[in-house]
Structures
1.
Amino acid sequence: SMTESHSNASASSSSSLSSSFPDTDDDHTIASILAEEENSKFGAKLGKRLSHLDSILHTPRVNGETPDVNDASLDHERLSERL
């Protein structure tokens, strides 16, 4: 019975693993569609439309002060009490 429970555990863990990646198939589909479009006229038009994006200046946002450790753990306690 030990081996039975072990195989059940591994089966359930693998199913939960696959459910945490539900869109891998979708990603492959999207990737192949994009690859087809890139070879078509539409893909060329899209490339021209997107090529101006690197001329837009990107200003990175910087976070303010890091919260005090005590404040952070108090917040964490408050939030976990709400669970």
Note: The radius of gyration is 24 Å.
2.
Amino acid sequence: MTRDTRLRAILEAMNADLRRGEFLRIEAYCAELETFLAEPRQALAGGRGDSRRLAQRNMECLKAAQAGLRAGMRRLAELAAAERADIYDRTGRRQPMTGGTEGRRL
């Protein structure tokens, strides 16, 4: 396997796993890329354009995945807050809603 095809294979496999949501494998790809970059440098026969484009695509996928994870965490926090069912008293302070309010006006 040439240096070109090896780099392309790593980047393509990483992208495929990113698209499937296999985030636990990303660390292994990073280690593989570190090993690849630590080897004696030779010019890539296919030029750097393809490799740069593939790496850019992977970076965009990682950013999108990160944004999705943040949105999911925000939504989980919203749901947890809704489960607490806080209410406000007459002075405007927030308090947890307790049982025994059925039939009473708040």
Note: The chain has a mean pLDDT of 83.
